[in-house]
C-alpha cells in the first residue's frame, strides 16, 4: 500500500498521519509544562502549511480550505 496524498486528506487526518510517520525518526526530548505539542506534531503543522500554501490554520473546518482551493483564494 502506498502513502496517501496528504493534500487530498482532511487536515486532521493528514496531521495525525504525518505526525505518526515522523515520530520514530525524531530523537526523544524532555517535554516541559509550557509546551503544547510534540516535535513531530510541530513538524506536521509546518509541512502541511507548506503543502496547502496556508500560513495560518484557523479552527475553521477543512471544508473552508477545500473551498478556497477551488476558488483560488486563501482562507484567513
- Poorly predicted regions are none
Fraction of helical residues:
40-55%
Q: What general outline do the C-alpha atoms trace?
A: globular
Q: Report the total helices.
A: 3
Relative strand content: under 5%
Task: Characterize the main sheet.
Answer: none
- Count the E strands: 0
Number of domains: 1
N-to-C SSE series?
HHH
The radius of gyration computed from the alpha-carbon positions, rounded to a whole number of angstroms, is 14 Å
Sheet/helix structural class: mainly alpha
Query: What value does the average pLDDT take?
Result: 75
Distance between the termini: 35 Å
Present the secondary structure layout:
Elements: H1 11-22, H2 39-52, H3 62-71
Concise summary:
The chain has 76 residues and is mostly helical. It has one domain (11-71). The protein has helices spanning 11-22, 39-52, 62-71.
